[in-house]
Amino acid sequence: MQAFTQLTGLAVPLDRANVDTDMIIPKQFLKSIKRSGFGPNLFDELRYLDEGQPDQDSSQRPINPDFVLNYPRYKGAKILLARDNFGCGSSREHAPWALLDFGISCVIAPSFADIFYNNCFKNGILPITLMDEQVDQLFEDTLAKEGFELTVDLEAGVIRGSSAGDIEFNIDSFRRHCLLNGLDDIGLTLEQSNSIKKYEQKRQQQAPWLFT
């Protein structure tokens, strides 16, 4: 997993609450356990004017010009501004995969669904919870200025770039450590590889018949 330390990029405002995981990545695209390839179908029902299918070439589909992620001014956005209860619905891990594959590596919202929130940290996405008025200010800043960028500094716990000044945020120390060091569950296990090898060697001496 790629480490997350500091990110500077365009912010795109998705002004709707209760965005569920089926809206983030519709169920018909959940046919792979690879973490890549889901970006073209992120928010599929909103981004396109037709209903997408798994084997369909997204580049040939008619785009919905009224959906915010399709606005030219937000092309290449890395930070998603959202509303309450983002990521609700089913627990599919494909939702953060789709965001990350699209280029979004930070989501800022007043609240998140618990499972989606946890899945973000396991896949290298930083979900930040702020107060409603702070999120409102970021929406206003983004809408007021084309090319508006934010800098998210995880190490310092600060968002820079808002017209209201720096915004501090808090992340659980363990999750912060994992993101800063690019550690998912496998990475955390591999940190204990020496202890695991020692245990295996000791166990083989104690019960050699288990290893024949």
Describe the structure.
The chain has a 7-stranded mixed β-sheet with strand order 4-3-2-1-5-6-7. By secondary structure, it is α/β, with parallel strands linked by helices. The chain contains 8 helices and 7 strands. β2, α3 and β3 form a beta-alpha-beta unit. 28% of the residues are buried. It has a single domain (6-181), classed as Aconitase, domain 4. The model has no long low-confidence stretch (mean pLDDT 91). The chain has helices at 21-24, 44-47, 94-102, 114-122, 132-144, 173-181, 185-190, 193-206; strands spanning 6-13, 79-81, 106-109, 126-129, 149-153, 158-160, 167-168. 32% of the residues lie in helices and 14% in strands.
- C-alpha-based Rg, rounded: 20 Å
User: Helical stretch count?
Assistant: 8
- CATH architecture assignment name: Alpha-Beta Barrel
Overall pLDDT, averaged?
A: 91
Name the helix and strand elements from N-terminus to C-terminus, one letter apiece. EHHEHEHEHEEEHHH
CATH superfamily: Aconitase, domain 4
Which structural class do you get from the secondary structure elements?
A: alpha/beta
- End-to-end span in angstroms? 35 Å
* Beta strand count: 7
Keywords:
7-stranded mixed β-sheet; 212 residues; alpha/beta
Quick take:
Helices cover 32% and strands 14% of the residues.
Helix and strand arrangement:
Layout lengths: L5 E8 L7 H4 L19 H4 L31 E3 L12 H9 L3 E4 L4 H9 L3 E4 L2 H13 L4 E5 L4 E3 L6 E2 L4 H9 L3 H6 L2 H14 L6
Parallel strand pairs: 1-2, 2-3, 3-4
Antiparallel strand pairs: 1-5, 5-6, 6-7
